[in-house]
Amino acid sequence: MNTPASEHTINLARNPCRIQVLFHGHVIADTTSAVILKEAGYKAVCYFPREDVAMEYLRASAHKTRCPYKGEASYFTLARDGDIAENAVWTYEDPLPAMEGIRGLVAFYPNQVEIHRVDEDDTRHDIADIILHTDSGSGRSQQEHWPANVTAPLN
């Protein structure tokens, strides 16, 4: 999608890759439905569907800005575990017609959060597998050598 002004192009494209946003180590967004906005000479911006964002950590702020190509942006302050990033997230609730593809999606300032792609081979390991493959140097698993240090909860 391009804006009408030929000297200022804006392209929107769906990104099927898994992308996460972390705020002080906490996952705030996790999606495979991101929209990437490429505008003129600016860096690409990743927009996230709200259903893939932990919106409970975002609070609407009074801050607003206006873009002649996209419309009025509204902002959110991000707060989690005592860490606060004011106006770190923005959205276009009612964008200009050419930017309908970002309506209601949210974007994060990359200097306030960590935005990264999650690769397909980025698998999490089960703790039992980690214990099983941890050894003392003898080459044998320590799993059977270590007694449990917790008991099952009583009902």
From TrEMBL:
Identification of the protein by name: DUF427 domain-containing protein
InterPro entries according to UniProt: DUF427, DUF427_sf
Chain residue ranges for the region called Disordered: 134-155
Residue span, DUF427 domain: 19-110
Gene3D superfamilies reported in the protein's UniProt record: Domain of unknown function (DUF427) (2.170.150.40)
One Pfam family hit: NTP_transf_9
Chain coiled-coil ranges: none
